[in-house]
Amino acid sequence: MANKSYKARQVRRAIFERTFGIAILAMLSFWLIVNLIKAPSQFAEVTLIGLSNGVLYALIALGYTLVYGIIELINFAHGDLFMLGGLFSAHFIALWFHQTKSSPMGWLVFFLALISVMVFCAGVNVFIERFAYRRLRRAPKLAPLITAVGVSFMIQFVGLRWNGSGQKTWNSVLPHGSVMLGSVKLPYTTLISFAVTIPILIALTFIVTKTRQGKAMRATAQDQDASRLMGINVNGTIAFTFALGGALAGVAGLLFQQTRGLTSYNLGYQLGLIAFTSAVLGGIGNLQGAVLGAILIGLIQGLNDGLPIGLGQQWSQTVVFSILILLMVFKPAGLLGKQVTEKV
Amino acid sequence: MAISFLKRGEKKQKQSASARKWAISLTLIALAIWAFFTYFFDKTPDAVQSWFQVWLPPSTINESLVWVICALGLNIVVGYAGLLDLGFVAFWAFGGYTAGWFMSGFFHQVNIHFGSMSAKVIPGIHLSFWLVMIIAALIAGFFGIIIGAPTLRLKSDYLALVTLGFGEIIPQVFTNGENIGGFNLSNGTKGISPIDAIGVFGKRLGPFDLGWKFLIYFFLAACMVFVSLRIRGGRLGRAWLAIREDELAASMMGVPLMRTKLTAYAVGAFSGGIGGAVYATHVNGIFAERFNFSISIILLAMVVLGGMGNVWGVIIGALLMAWINATGLPAIGDTFNNTFHTAINFPSYNFLLFGGILVLMMLFKRDGILPEARLKMISHENDDEAANTGGH
Description:
The complex is a heterodimer of chains A (344) and B (392).
Chain A: H1 2-38, H2 40-71, H3 78-96, H4 104-133, H5 142-163, E1 168-169, E2 178-181, E3 184-187, H6 188-210, H7 212-222, H8 224-229, H9 234-260, E4 262-263, H10 267-282, H11 287-306, H12 316-330
Antiparallel strand pairs in A: 1-4, 2-3
Helix pairs in contact in A: 1-2, 2-6, 2-9, 2-10, 2-11, 3-4, 3-5, 3-9, 3-10, 4-9, 6-7, 6-9, 7-9, 10-11, 10-12
Chain B: H1 2-40, H2 46-55, H3 58-80, H4 89-102, E1 103-104, E2 111-114, E3 124-127, H5 129-151, H6 156-175, E4 198-200, E5 203-205, H7 210-233, H8 235-245, H9 247-252, H10 257-283, H11 293-306, H12 311-340, H13 350-364, H14 373-379, H15 383-389
Parallel strand pairs in B: 2-3
Antiparallel strand pairs in B: 1-3, 4-5
């Protein structure tokens, strides 16, 4: 009897969730259609901006998802690593190599900066893992989480010292101007963001699914003790995962700094939260999910900020975090994630 | 069997005796501070006065009591029930804006006076300070339940994230709240100021009546201590501790998980509301930009530093960090710069300080300054294993 009523409750709950989800989607599409009819060309431009934000978020979100997938830690310091990457590339290009204009030399330095920032951020992330998180791997869950918050503050301090307390603007070495597609402007910077990001995403997928190291990563994510018994170097694999995540954050930092031309010590916190929301939206621990979630969040944010009928930029954070909370309540496993029952 | 019961009884007696000792000594210290600042401060030599102005000004003492109230609330959520809450600033904001709405001339459309000492001709809602305390606590507690009810079935790290999101949304709502559908909810970035003076025994406390305010804040903090200690020993408190230590085992023993967690959340939010309203009277205004993430983190650092779950530890942690934040760091910096003729900007090191405290405490002294005996055993349960596997 009790079982039956429990089941009935489950079914009622499922129906409610489904209806609620459909209602939200219907409202969303109604809003989009109204805007599309009202201002079609603005709609297309805003969509492009949203997409280019989305790929940036994807790079950061992947770092969260990789780390969460392997040691179930929300690495709060990851967003700040992205900020550090942005600062590093700004100094690398503008101050150490004196490139402030778009020229072949500038593009070469951009390429060099891409590689150095990946190495730099990977190194920082591995360092953090080695000295802060590794000791706490078996501690109660609250301990590494609080440590991550602390590390995030320490990185922000480094940013504050390096960049100063205000925002700094930088000249980009990427070409200005844009291609016209019909009546829609497509800036070169957006194109370059895509050109850098997509090969990196493909390479990441290759590493995780096809290589020996990727196999070790997946095994460690499933069961650390069993992997150790199978001869996998668990500490090394986790360090490698942090290195991958750090490198991606570095790329995101470089792209952000070059396309928006600004750095600020508290940038990482905001963008990190948005990126984490994307990772959760897609289903945390799932690589494709992180990319999908990031692009969706980028689009929603871009559309909300830029469309004539929208809440506007000052509500941007509220929109993103409301999505996060609604998602947590109704579909905690995310769009592509599988619902797992907790093992005991 | 009988022996073990006896032992437990003795232990309980010992515990309550130690609590009494703590309570009495803290009260005596507080009264001494009050008496010193009210009666003897003016008679002391100038050198002593200026020393106190630099190292321990009365307003810092009052402010640290506000932090104590909030930290004790967060301690119930994080320390007792083991739920990581990273958005405590939201409740602080609710409490603050409640004081702003009901203790000022902000709603100038109406003219409601009840138990307030302000002149009857001034428009706005002017309620008694004590009534506003209760309303603020209830509003914050209500929102605590609203946000807690759907999210508390999540795992701990997801919960941390949802509370973080909540702590971002609420301050943004207040920052943008100047025009919500044509209604001015919060006066936006301009904030609400001034707040009505607190009235006690027919006396209006102006901005310089710090001694009286100190007594009021101390009384509220003492109430929080009393509530924390009493709940902890009771049925509800023991259920919280059980959930913190093993959720599954607790639910098998018949502890209703959702309801118990929700109560922890609501009680925490309740005290956050009180803290927010008290803070509003302390700074005599509400300013939206003050409600940011760092408040949540500083509170968390206080709880972690003092010792999660140990009321006395949390009080020490809160007093210490509030003092460092408000007075200690600038004062130490000035002294250092004057002695060594340097120009180091010490307050800019507070990021490093708070981050460093969190990391180092977690790495080397996970239980805080005054560890709670129960938690100490649990947090080192797996350490032997970790030494074998994670150490190399």
